[in-house]
Amino acid sequence: MSLVTTTEMFKKAYEGGYAIGAFNVNNMEIIQGITEAAKEEKAPLILQVSAGARKYANHTYLVKLVEAAIQETGLPIALHLDHGDTFELCKSCIDGGFSSVMIDGSHHSFEENIKLTKQVVDYAHDKGVTVEGELGRLAGIEDAVNVSDKDAAFTDPDEVEEFVKRTGVDSLAIAIGTSHGAFKFKGEAKLRFDILEEVQKRLPGFPIVLHGASSVMPEYVEIINKFGGSMPGAKGVPEDMLRQAAKMAVCKINIDSDLRLAMTATIRKYFAENPSHFDPRQYLGPARTAIKEVVKHKLVNVLGCNGKA
Ligand code: G3H
Ligand code: 13P
Ligand code: ZN
């Protein structure tokens, strides 16, 4: 099997009331942990690469690692560019074998966002690649971009039909209160399900994407804090809210921070308990296992996509 686009997986997910997990990757252990979990749970997968991750790990290495994962698992896997910010970056990923890209024009005006997104869609569709667009602006930190709470903006449901129609995107990321990183809510966690419902009404059958959807699993934050770390106030999206969204129009749920936390917690604990060890396999092995456990939990208990491959 080769890479698949998101078309088929989103159609089934929408109809089946579940979501596909889109997990960020940047090295071999992360890819192995995620794909071993998906193989055991027979789940379709989206592996996504940010501009920063692509720079860190190298485009060719990442494509080859994902191809190896497909060979090992036989699963339908899409390789997706996360938060592409220019036409050139999207084109480079499309030309280099990705099966899906995101063009994130959410920092531009509505008209500029449409223009940029349509340019990417025209190029991508010509090559059989699917495209995710974004309307509304999430708060939080991603790579070098730090969107403060005051610059964040919920998606306006009045804009979604026109955006989808004029751009031709295959899926749409919306802002309903989630945010990137490990500090998502200062007080009570709240998502604007009313906006999601309204968007779903305007775009019946159309796949919606949720970014910033890590739960910031307290068990890993606790380990980090116990073994020399400091993450006071870390807080994520409650998993029952994500399950509810997955039953609605949300077909893709982005998770990165939870994997980072699991990996970091495991390595911190390992060194606290084994201060004289220095073979990377000794700490990267358990970190990979922790990622696998987190992903299995998400596939089964949050996304509901187990058994759907
Ligand atoms: O949405 C952003 C992802 O968490 C990727 O983060 O740009 O630091 O690789 P990154
Ligand atoms: P988290 O930081 O919540 O894991 O979000 C990841 C994401 O949206 C990647 O695009
Ligand atoms: Zn994101």
Shape: globular
Q: Tell me how many strands there are.
A: 11
Return the domain count. Answer: 1
Q: What is the helical fraction, as a range of percent?
A: 40-55%
Question: What do the pLDDT scores average to?
Answer: 96
Distance N to C terminus: 13 Å
> Which value, in Å, is the CA radius of gyration?
18 Å
- Looking at the overall shape, the CATH architecture is Alpha-Beta Barrel
Note the beta-strand portion: 15-25%
User: For the largest beta sheet, what order do the strands appear in spatially?
Assistant: 1-2-3-4-5-8-10-11
Uncertain spans, ≥5 residues at pLDDT below 50? Answer: none
Name given to the CATH homologous superfamily: Aldolase class I
Number of helices: 12
SSE order in H/E notation?
HEHEHHEHEHEEEHEEHEHHEHH
Major beta sheet summary: 8 strands, parallel, barrel
The top-level CATH class is Alpha Beta
Overall description:
- The protein has 309 residues and is of the alpha/beta class.
- It has a single domain, classed as TIM Barrel, CATH 3.20.20.70.
- It is 49% helix and 17% strand.
- It is built from twelve helices and eleven strands.
- The protein has helices spanning 7-16, 28-41, 51-57, 59-73, 87-95, 110-126, 157-167, 193-202, 218-226, 239-247, 257-273, 280-303; strands at 20-24, 45-50, 77-84, 100-103, 130-135, 139-142, 145-147, 171-174, 179-180, 208-210, 250-255.
- It has an eight-stranded parallel β-barrel with strand order 1-2-3-4-5-8-10-11, surrounded by ten helices. Strands 7-6-9 form a three-stranded mixed sheet, with no helix packed on it.
- The longest helix has 24 residues, at 280-303.
- The protein is globular.
- The relative contact order is 0.16.
- The structure holds glyceraldehyde-3-phosphate (G3H), 1,3-dihydroxyacetonephosphate and zinc ion (ZN).
- Glyceraldehyde-3-phosphate is lined by residues 24, 50, 52-53, 82-83, 142-143, 180, 256.
